[in-house]
Amino acid sequence: MVDQKEFEYLLSLASEWAETQEAYVLKHGLPLTARQMADARQAGVRDFSRVRVLVVDRIPLPDDEKLAEAARRAQIITDASRGVAIGRGIIIRADSWQNRELLLHQLVHVAQCERSGGLKPFVEEYLSDRRTCRDFSVGSLEDEARGLAKEISAADKLAKQTA
Q1: pLDDT tens column, 45-82
Q2: Strand pairing category for 89-93 and 52-56
Q3: Are residues 100 and 61 in contact, defined by beta-carbon separation less than 8 angstroms?
Q4: Residue 80: how many other CB atoms lie within 10 Å
Q5: At what angle are helices 100-116 and 119-132 packed, to 10 degrees?
Q6: Which residues, 6 or more positions from 88, have their beta carbon under 8 angstroms from its beta carbon?
Q7: At what angle do helices 34-43 and 100-116 cross, to 10 degrees?
Q8: Residue 23 contacts residue 88 (beta carbons within 8 Å)
């Protein structure tokens, strides 16, 4: 666990990195499809028309070695990561592009970012939440994203089966 001074330093680096990544995804990513917009609405995203998705071969780690190591150690971004939401930008690994539950999970993070008041407050809230999580959790924001994505996916599957 890092001390408060180190956490604040990493938080500053993480915020800068997140702003750069979001800007890149918003410029180069694709808008949501009609189906994805409906999912975004269900996930709680208010301004889904501004969300963009970028499909990549691997989720990028920060260039800064300390920040990259902290991201790996906290399991925020690892070599196994399949997706990440950064503000209104979502990055999805190409081999997971068709995974609806994964995209729903990322859309919940977009909604959380909107609720927190923007990217910088969300990065601080998310990292603080991850830093203080207990009981084998990865934090309340991750728990919410996982739970809501599963709930929406399961409800959709059930509706299709009973139709």
Answers
A1: 999 999 999 999 999 999 999 999 999 988 899 999 99
A2: parallel
A3: no
A4: 9
A5: 110
A6: 22, 26, 47, 50, 51, 52, 110, 113
A7: 50
A8: no
